[in-house]
């Protein structure tokens, strides 16, 4: 096999071939027919933990950003404008260290449950690349993997692009027909993900009240649930057409539904302990826009919203990175620096809640997602905190198209 290809990002796959009788590429027999939810117990040889990746030194920053922006012809001089965020932290993104912690915690949780599955880790844009992960698995004798992407929601970059990454890696290593890859459902409304944010918002409210007893939590505080902005055209193509989501597609609808669930559960917990709080001011905002001004992206921007809060009578803001599973650079820079500075300029008390990271509740939830596929848990028995879910095991046809690139070969979903 092409060992010389290891240590670099694989080229885009030219094809995602189908096994005889299958309508899903590189799928297990339980998924090959394309059913939305799989209720057939399936044995796997390992878990494929898939992530975005990030640099771990100053000399890795520009190569990483070239991978992120590959095919767009962006010169290094412009990449340096973004690189300053990484250079501020010594050229090191926290994401790889967090994935190492998550990998170890997930393996330990699986072993605790008697599911002794190795966790192979591959990145989209930095080492270890996805082709390294599938090669490691194949060399260890694996024939079937269950993929878990570190992204909870439906969109091109958070779901379909990972499925394309798997196809790229399989073709790069000549493993089509030898290694199957299924994928767990998008877990935006799984309790293991949602509950970590419930805890974070509740603790932030307590912290604000402890710091200033005069605060009225119902009127003086704004909760901003924030996620990565994406082009409106791409957002509108997230999720299958048959769901008829409004503008923003499944991506925006899922974030709104999860934010509502978090607020509902926070209020229920506070009322249960006798705090009497019956409402919270909240909204969904967006951050980290990177496209040209002429291209519509999801709005409003978090900093623009923070600027308006004092005129609405707010004295404090709680920023909840609902769209992130760990402290990516967009969290460290765009929230802990820029949004915090915006709050200071508006004379607002500021709290930023944690991301799930390797929180035991989150790790247990990921293990639950793996277990439901091994056991073949029926759809109706799967937990979901919103009416939108539980999401699909096998992505539907035409889901999450990239407007600029169209549909590239992918696995773990119906073609195209």
TrEMBL record:
Enzyme class: lyase
Binding sites annotated in the UniProt record for Fe-coproporphyrin III: 93, 162
Keywords on record: Cytoplasm, Heme biosynthesis, Iron, Lyase, Metal-binding, Porphyrin biosynthesis
Pathway info: Porphyrin-containing compound metabolism; protoheme biosynthesis
Tagged with keyword Metal-binding: yes
InterPro entries: Ferrochelatase, Ferrochelatase_C, Ferrochelatase_N
Catalyzed reactions per annotation: Fe-coproporphyrin III + 2 H(+) = coproporphyrin III + Fe(2+)
Pfam family, one: Ferrochelatase
EC number annotated for this UniProt entry: 4.99.1.9
Binding site for Fe(2+): 228, 330
Function: Involved in coproporphyrin-dependent heme b biosynthesis. Catalyzes the insertion of ferrous iron into coproporphyrin III to form Fe-coproporphyrin III.
Protein name as annotated: Coproporphyrin III ferrochelatase
């Amino acid at each position: 096999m092409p060992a010389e290809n290891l240590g670099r990002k694989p080229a885009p796959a030219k094809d995602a071939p189908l096994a005889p009788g299958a309508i899903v590429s590189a799928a297990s027999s339980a998924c090959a027919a394309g059913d939305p939810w799989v209720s057939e117990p399936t044995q796997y040889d390992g878990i494929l933990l898939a992530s975005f990746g990030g640099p771990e030194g100053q000399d890795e920053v520009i190569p990483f950003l070239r991978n992120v922006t590959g095919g767009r012809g962006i010169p290094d001089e412009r990449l340096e404008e973004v690189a300053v965020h990484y250079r501020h932290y010594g050229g090191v993104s926290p994401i790889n260290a967090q994935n190492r912690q998550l990998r170890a915690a997930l393996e330990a949780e699986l072993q605790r449950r008697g599911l002794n599955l190795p966790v192979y880790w591959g990145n989209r844009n930095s080492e270890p690349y996805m082709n390294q992960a599938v090669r490691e698995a194949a060399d260890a004798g694996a024939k079937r993997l269950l993929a878990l992407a570190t992204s909870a929601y439906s969109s091109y970059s958070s779901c379909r692009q990972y499925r394309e990454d798997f196809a790229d890696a399989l073709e790069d290593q000549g493993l089509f027909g030898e290694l199957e890859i299924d994928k767990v459902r998008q877990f935006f409304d799984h309790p293991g993900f949602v509950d970590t944010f419930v805890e974070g918002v509740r603790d932030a409210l307590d912290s604000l009240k402890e710091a200033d007893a005069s605060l009225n939590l119902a009127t003086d505080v704004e909760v901003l649930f924030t996620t990565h902005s994406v082009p409106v055209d791409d957002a509108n193509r997230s999720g299958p057409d048959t769901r008829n989501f409004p503008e923003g597609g499944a991506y925006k609808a899922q974030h709104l539904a999860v934010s509502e669930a978090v607020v509902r559960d926070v209020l229920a917990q506070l009322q249960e302990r006798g705090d009497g709080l019956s409402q919270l001011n909240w909204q969904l905002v967006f951050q980290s826009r990177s496209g040209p001004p002429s291209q519509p992206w999801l709005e409003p921007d978090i900093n623009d919203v923070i600027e308006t809060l004092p005129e609405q009578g707010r004295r404090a803001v709680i920023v909840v990175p609902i769209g992130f599973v760990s402290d990516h650079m967009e969290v460290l820079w765009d929230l802990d620096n820029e949004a915090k500075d915006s709050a200071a300029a508006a004379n607002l008390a500021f709290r930023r809640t944690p991301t799930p990271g390797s929180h035991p509740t989150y790790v247990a939830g990921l293990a639950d997602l793996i277990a439901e596929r091994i056991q073949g848990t029926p759809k109706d028995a799967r937990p979901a905190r919103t009416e939108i879910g539980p999401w699909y095991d096998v992505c539907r046809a035409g889901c999450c198209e990239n407007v600029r690139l169209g549909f590239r070969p992918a696995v773990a979903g119906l073609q195209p």
